[in-house]
Amino acid sequence: MTFDELGLAAPLLRAVKEKGYTEPSPIQVQAIPAVLSGRDIMAAAQTGTGKTAGFTLPILQLLSQSAPIHPHRIRCLILTPTRELAAQVADSVTTYGAHLPLKSAVVFGGVKINPQIDKLRRGIDILIATPGRLLDLYQQGEVRFNDLEILVLDEADRMLDMGFIHDIRRILKLLPEQRQNLMFSATFPNEIRTLTRSIMTNPVEVEVSPPNTTAERVEQWVHPVDKAEKSAALRELVQIHNWQQVLVFTRTKHGANRLTQHLEKARINAAAIHGNKSQGARTRALADFKSGKVRVLVATDIAARGLDIAQLPQVVNFDLPNVPEDYVHRIGRTGRAGAAGKAYSLVSADEIKQLNAIEQVIQRHLTREYIDGFEPKHEVPDSAPLRKPRPAGQSAPRRQHGGNQPGEGKHTARNRGGEGHRRPTRRRSGNTAR
Predict the structure, then answer these.
(1) Same domain, 55 and 151
(2) Contact between 391 and 379 (Cβ < 8 Å)
(3) What is the pTM of this model?
């Protein structure tokens, strides 16, 4: 199928062609016609599947066919959990709306509010916002929802995780009842499903990949290592593999800062990105990482879904996440848009609970490999047996939507708890990455 067959207008097709895309992704094939039909949508899709274009393209078309804007008022509201994701959605709106006479703006905290107010006073077709800043602007009388036609909740489960559910409910009470609702979420925990039932009318359900599986084309390994040796082990991996671009996830902001300082002392250009950083610092760090000035970008989970980096070859879990589904979001930063990717996790003995939970969610045991010189004094216990997933419809922990794991092939060793424990030589360890 081509974009021409999805019912998009000529200005949008022109913008898509200029972007270099010829075939829509599975989520776009399902979502675009449904949005154009005016239906409410409940879509299960990860970042990296093309979902942003899946709603921005049809929204742009719908708005281009209707009435003009008024000062202080908006016609489409797109809510996102993080500043980075808001900025990326705004870029998508600008890119695909290049040949349409529509106005858009993005608002989030951490930057001056006055320039955002100036744009709103002129009237906006599409507003992309984080919940906190949007409520600030509403309370100041700078935004009104009387003309709202479309609401999009992007990364709805992440907004729940980050404590935005109360802000979302406050915002919903301010909106007109007659509107089109689009919800995109990687998972649908009970609170999100309850919210969905309260705001949607007979929604179209879209799911692009089976649940509880990890991102396609991402090969995965576990490196058992003592907690005190993790920083040195990561430095060794960067140097052995000669990684020029690697995204590393830590559990805490302070841990991200400490790790960045450790790498910088080893003369490895690194930067941290997390909630305590100003928006300017976060934007600079991401830009330097994309340009190659920074080799290692250290991030907390707040950035796990907000980062969009083309052809990122590998990610490292310095700490395993406490929420197992976040593992899938993290490794989903690589292996995107048809490219291969690799994910490495540094796991210490006290993280066996998190490792077992992750392996249960993805329904497979991860291959274990040792790094020469960093064999742990405290061995990571054997993995727990996998349980069969609960049948659909039964109450269960949060579920993850992703793709299928490629075959392990030569990377699998004999079983011992995980899919295999392997003690590679330094040369062999270095050969596991491009």
Answers:
(1) yes
(2) no
(3) 0.62
**Sequence-ordered strand ranges (E) for 313-428:** 314-317, 341-347, 367-369, 421-422
Count H helices and E strands in the chain, helices first: 15, 15
CB neighbour list of residue 388: distance below 8 Å, 6 or more residues apart: none
pLDDT of 226 reads 97
* pLDDT classification of 308: cutoffs 50, 70, 90: low
The CATH number linked to 175 is: 3.40.50.300
The pLDDT tens digits for 256-300 are 999 999 999 999 999 998 878 877 888 888 889 988 999 999 998
Between strands 124-129 and 150-154, the pairing is unpaired
Say which amino acid occupies 241: H
Helix pair 165-174, 190-199: axis angle to 10 deg = 0
Same domain, 245 and 295: yes
Residue 260 has which token pair?
């960045």
Residue owning tokens 């990122």:
312
Number of domains in the chain: 2
- Structural domain for 294, as ranges: 218-430
Of 381, 328, 57, the residue nearest 186 (C-alpha): 328
Percentage, residues of the chain above pLDDT 90 = 53
Phi, psi of 180 (to 5 degrees): -95, 135
